[in-house]
What we know:
Elements: H1 9-22, H2 27-43, H3 53-60, H4 67-86, H5 113-120, H6 125-136, H7 141-145, E1 152-153, E2 159-163, E3 169-173, H8 177-184, H9 201-211, H10 219-233, H11 236-243, H12 248-252, H13 259-269
Antiparallel strand pairs: 1-2, 2-3
Helix pairs in contact: 1-2, 2-4, 6-10, 10-11
Amino acid sequence: xxxxxxxxxxxxxxxxxxxxxAANRSRTTxxxxxxxxxxxxxxxxxxxxxxxxxxxRELMATPTWGPESKQSCRTVLRQFYAWxxxxxxxxxxxxxxxxxxxxxRTTVQQAPEYVVRHITGHPEPRMQLMGxxxxxxxxxxxxxxxxxxxxxxxxxxxxxxxxxxxxRERDLPVMNLELLARLHQLDGWAFPNKHGxxxxxxxxxxxxxxxxxxxxxxxxxxxxxxQTAYDGTKDIAAVSAMLGHSKIETTQRYVRTGQDxxxxxxxxAGDVA
Length: 273
């Protein structure tokens, strides 16, 4: 694709998409980037390269967006305009001056045990397995969807190989014997579709949300796994590895310090020699 073809929105979006795909970014990441760039295109439909820093800030200030959405938007804009600059489509990158977004640390909701018991004891075996993978191993919906019998390895076939977000891989020893027995029964995809592949992550999320107790979704199952693992080990690094996080800071948003640990810390701090 020539430089001239990249100067308008259609060519720019297609060219940038090819760059993301060449960098092995996931389809979810590509969709996210195209989503925010489409929002920008709707506001400035003529050319992407005449947009000013102020206009980018106006997009990020969309009233209905929360801090997480604004942060994602900033990341996309900075990467897109850095790409445009590298392709010599612009002389000055207007996204360089976008200041970082302050994202408040919030207390993450974890699925309570009655919700976990409900989904892991579901009358449909498929839903039981989805619930166990989320609650006991902390898998994301995109990871649950791709579970395959060939992912089990080790001498006892008790280690599950997981291809995670950003194509990061991790191996998880399956310690829950009921879950391990269910995985040993697999022959191919755990959750096959009608076309010889696996269910989409979105459909797995929809199924879990539909079958969980009212108001609960799939992701709090992952938070439950994280909090339970942390409560039992106090090893944030191990929990981070379990979840497939690239940064400990991300894991810290999944777990909270219990009152017993807090009291113990304060007792030590208040001990006078």
